[in-house]
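To: structure desk
From: M.T.
Subject: fold request, one chain
Message: Could you run this one when you get a chance? Sequence is below, nothing fancy, just the single chain.
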Amino acid sequence: MAESAPKKKKKFRLFDAILSIICIVFAVEAATPAAAIGNSQYFWWIFLIIAFLLPYGLVVSELGTAYDDEGGLYDWVRRAFGDKWGARVSWYYWINFPLWMASLAFLFPETIALMTGFELDLIPTLAIELAFVWIVVFMSFSKVSDSGWILNLSAVLKVLIAVSVGGLGIYYAVTNGFASDMSPATFMPDLTNTNALTYLSIILFNFMGFEVICTFAGAMKNPSKDIPKAIVLGGLAIGAIYLFCSFGIGAAIPADQIDPDFGMIYAVMTMVGEASPIFMIICIIFLVTLFANMASWSFGVNFVADYAAKHGNMPKLFSHENAKTEMPTGAAIINGVVASLALMLQLIPIPAISDGIFWMLFSMNVVFLLISYIPMFPAFLKMRKVDPNRKRVFTFPFKGKLMYVMLAIPAIELVLAIIATIVPLNGTEEELSKIPMLIGVIVFVVLGEVVRIWSKRGRTEEYKGLTPALAAERLDAEAAEEAGEDAEAEEAKSDAEPEPVPVA
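Reply: Done. Structure tokens follow.
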């Protein structure tokens, strides 16, 4: 009998998981809008780390280790509330990605122009943006196990940029004086500053995506322990990096002069000069991280869309996979098409749209990502209620009424952040500029309902959500399956043992 092939080693260690979280969650380009809040950002960072990141991370840790589903956030909501809400979450979770990719594509030629000093016309600009989009699409065709080095390298480069910008900003402030008023009063939140409230959604956005690590559970040595550790340690690391980077930007550039589009690049240019090799190096690394960030995010997003399509909760085209790599190429291609169409908005001769394309697309991406997380908290409560006997390796530590409070707070924060981002809070020109974003969000929400209804035609039955009886039935089935696997393993082991040699 031929010798069996050696078992392939698991590739995702705890350290790899933390680096992957940093790569996937940490968005360097998002540090600048947060810095535009001013000194009160530090209050909001600390407040939201405690009031949002903590309960959110704990919820994800319990759900991610109790339910090893391929669909992550989508599967949790679908388990609890059925196909209808599962379909909605899958749509909101997916649509944010092509919008985000389009907004980052917009940064690419503009950064090149700042590096070289050459202004690009609209057509070459569009060509570079479209090239960025489709390179990301083709990068997402490769297996995550083969692209682990991309995740790790991207994480290192992102941290390098953030720390460098923070350090340069502090050095510049010490040498030339702080650009912003650093009196204690400026560090307190100003709830009348609608502009600052708009940017608060960016801080929440910076904490989104931890559940993507759950899609890599099958490639991790000990996912039940490593996932909670990676989420907690990765979250603290990301918060510290953002705070340091934002402090450096705010120390060098007055808050009211920070450009949310290219604020980081302009900040570095101010600190070291546009002809400095340091400026060039940071710009190049920044462009590399844009590719890596999109490629890493695409893994989780595409798998969720693919998985939902197999349930009849997304169009069938999303479930198309490469026969050799099993990667969801259908979802990846649709990402490219939607992002390309979004970039064409630059051709519309309306300054409110064409001039603010980055912030409009980026804000819409933020809003849809935040929307997709709201159902997770009531889903968590329902799963606790109807599936109490399921083994939970990690358990949400808060009990009773305190648990409800700790779950309600982040959900309310998400709703308020969404309102502040897309709803004009007064009649100023700056607030009224949110109207195109609001219209865009409404259009995509309506389109999502059309897609949901259309997609479910391929289902033979409608899953309504978990009940106590169904939960017990699933536990029995899982126990029987596990017992069968153990029996097969024992049988294989016994067959593999050599017959005893009789003694003469």
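Reply (cont.): The CA atoms of residues 155 and 328 lie 24 Å apart. Let me know if you need anything else for the meeting.
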